[in-house]
Amino acid sequence: MTAAKTPVERPGSPAGSPAEAEQHPAKALDDTVHQRVRLGILTVAHQARRAEFGFLRTALDLTAGNLGQHLTVLEKAGLVAVEKGYEGRRPRTWITLTPAGEHALREEVAQLKRLIRQIEAADGT
Question: Is the CB of residue 95 less than 8 Å from the CB of residue 71?
Fold first, then answer.
């Protein structure tokens, strides 16, 4: 026996209506961006404007391999640019957000804010 779910009622829209489901901010979250590590990478790169691989690895407490895999996903999606070069004699890798990455990050934050507002409205805060 499963427990019945109580629908959330919204003014002007019957609970559980297709219109309500389409408007839920969780539907607009981008799976590529929303993953915890990738969201962290985008956020740090946004704040730093140009983040060095080692800095990202330390800031997010990741292994080099794990960070590399997430950067590959973001690069393939066109959200970050990866630049390899040298600082003195030491090889370095720098990460910057592309315009698409900036847009995706801003959209993700906007949807998260909408989710927070819904929760606060439901709690009466």
Answer: yes
Nearest to 115 by CA among 18, 24, 7, 32: 24
Residue with structure tokens 């998260």? 112
Predicted confidence (pLDDT) per residue in 21-32, tens digit: 557 888 888 999
Please name which of 24, 35, 20 lies closest in space to residue 74, comparing C-alpha atoms. Answer: 35
pLDDT value of position 66? 97
φ and ψ at residue 50, rounded to 5 degrees: -150, 110
The torsion defined by the Cα of 105, 36, 27 and 77, in degrees rounded to 10, comes to 60
**pLDDT, average across residues 55-72:** 97
- Rounded to whole angstroms, how far apart are CA atoms 104 and 108? 6
Among 17-21, 67-71, 87-91, the range with the most confident prediction by mean pLDDT is 67-71
